[in-house]
């Protein structure tokens, strides 16, 4: 479905490209041996390299390079065996050296693509322009003192991957789908935790508008948007702002803007007027980064199965619908949980229970799959009891709730509460007879042609048996008598 | 190529170097002299020549991903003119 902004003189098309900064998962920083872990007392995860002391030299972290390569492979992108580092120069208090080491002309990863899926089930390919390695800056705090800003350099020098998309995105929904898919791939790869609240994934959003068939018009860059929802909102309001400017005869200035979620508007960041004049030049401290083809192949051989491949395998191997497979692979932990439940069991039954009652229970109890009150094996054990006829589907729901509360196994609960399904035909026949004796009027109606009452009798018999009757046998017994 | 006074002023601002208006003509002359040199170098035909980054076939050495540094706040803050507790401080940066 095409997303258009209705202007005064007709519809406008939206053009969006995203630059995502993803913090690399590693023990130490990109160019120093200080810890890269989040938190920590202020200025304790800092080496003299990070603090920009004279004479300090950067030495690159092999694992950060490996993480960038893994990500490139996961994005089906070209891996450049030779890349370079440049200095991106700007002055800010939390950037001690006065430059960020980045990759400008020769990034480590070239073109790739991500397939996104939209709500209507359609899919689109969004191109990846490049991925490069760079350093994060420190953190400034402006609210601690009336006259001073406070600086913590713990984050300074931590490795980031900047992942740049082509201007292929045409709606806020596509931007959201792109970010979710990218985050899913990064999490599967274990190269970035994708946590936008903690700032380990942030997006700069390039937005422009145009009439259908036109070349691109001037774009604005909305910096540092820190949630997927805000990215979608920022695009929407920025596009409307630009349409209004063009339609009132003005022209959009290329500039950096900030999204204010409270007012749902974007504002110009005048302080950044020189922001695009970074005077890049090759970093004289760093030789070219050269990696071996064999190493890249080794990293490729050890990549985990990625979401798209896993989803397809779930459809093929377990015969579950595409939608269900998509829900199950959204997180690796969920996919692993499902596979444990499904192993050696009916995979559709397993999918229904995991997506249905199990997810609902997690939601209700505010738990995640990592600290789930019911283990995959325990849920599997309950499915075994359904499959072998020990309990019926209705009783299973009660057993499940009980498992949730007590943490007991399904078998223990069934024994303790005597929930075993009644398959003794004598007992079922007796219950059927009792129900018929109690409802002579209904019986007469049924016999005079009111077939729908069959369901009523089934319900009454099950009720008389406290839900424990085997539904198939109850049906059979009723049919026989009626 | 030659730089006008406005460009010289802008370069100085980007580099955070304060200059007097009276210094502009001299700086402009110096920078234009350097650019003249670069233009001479640009006359050399280097099509099909790989950029040389050093002598020999040196490439970046990589280190293993282990924490070997940090936990040295005193040393890190030792030259800070106005540290406050565990932080560096700077004159307020107003966004």
UniProtKB/TrEMBL annotation, chain A:
Q: Which domain of life is it from?
A: Bacteria
Please list the GO biological process terms of this entry: glutaminyl-tRNAGln biosynthesis via transamidation; translation
What keywords appear on the UniProt entry?
Answer: ATP-binding, Ligase, Nucleotide-binding, Protein biosynthesis, Transferase
* This protein's name: Aspartyl/glutamyl-tRNA(Asn/Gln) amidotransferase subunit B
Query: Which InterPro entries would you find in this protein's record?
Result: Asn/Gln-tRNA_amidoTrfase_suB/E, Asn/Gln-tRNA_Trfase_suB/E_cat, Asn/Gln_amidotransferase, Asn/Gln_tRNA_amidoTrase-B-like, GatB, GatB_C_1, GatB_Yqey_C_2, Gln-tRNA_amidoTrfase_suB_CS
Q: How does it assemble?
A: Heterotrimer of A, B and C subunits.
- Pfam (any one): GatB_Yqey
Q: What is its EC number?
A: 6.3.5.-
HAMAP family documented for this protein: GatB
* Its job: Allows the formation of correctly charged Asn-tRNA(Asn) or Gln-tRNA(Gln) through the transamidation of misacylated Asp-tRNA(Asn) or Glu-tRNA(Gln) in organisms which lack either or both of asparaginyl-tRNA or glutaminyl-tRNA synthetases. The reaction takes place in the presence of glutamine and ATP through an activated phospho-Asp-tRNA(Asn) or phospho-Glu-tRNA(Gln).
Q: What is the lineage of its organism?
A: Bacteria, Pseudomonadati, Pseudomonadota, Alphaproteobacteria, Acetobacterales
Domain Asn/Gln amidotransferase, residue spans: 336-482
- What species was this sequence derived from? Gluconacetobacter asukensis
Q: Which family does it belong to?
A: Belongs to the GatB/GatE family. GatB subfamily.
TrEMBL record, chain B:
Q: What Pfam families does its record include?
A: GatC
A GO molecular function held by the record = glutaminyl-tRNA synthase (glutamine-hydrolyzing) activity
User: InterPro entries, alphabetically?
Assistant: Asp/Glu-ADT_sf_sub_c (IPR036113), GatC (IPR003837)
Q: Name one GO biological process term.
A: regulation of translational fidelity
Task: Look up the domain of life of the source.
Answer: Bacteria
EC numbers listed for it are 6.3.5.-
What catalytic activity does the UniProt entry give for this protein? L-aspartyl-tRNA(Asn) + L-glutamine + ATP + H2O = L-asparaginyl-tRNA(Asn) + L-glutamate + ADP + phosphate + 2 H(+); L-glutamyl-tRNA(Gln) + L-glutamine + ATP + H2O = L-glutaminyl-tRNA(Gln) + L-glutamate + ADP + phosphate + H(+)
Keyword annotations from UniProtKB, A to Z? ATP-binding, Ligase, Nucleotide-binding, Protein biosynthesis, Transferase
What EC class is this? ligase
Q: Which family does it belong to?
A: Belongs to the GatC family.
HAMAP family linked: GatC
**What PANTHER family does this protein's entry cite?**
GLUTAMYL-TRNA(GLN) AMIDOTRANSFERASE SUBUNIT C, MITOCHONDRIAL
Assembly description: Heterotrimer of A, B and C subunits.
What protein name is recorded for this chain? Answer: Aspartyl/glutamyl-tRNA(Asn/Gln) amidotransferase subunit C
Report the source organism: Gluconacetobacter aggeris
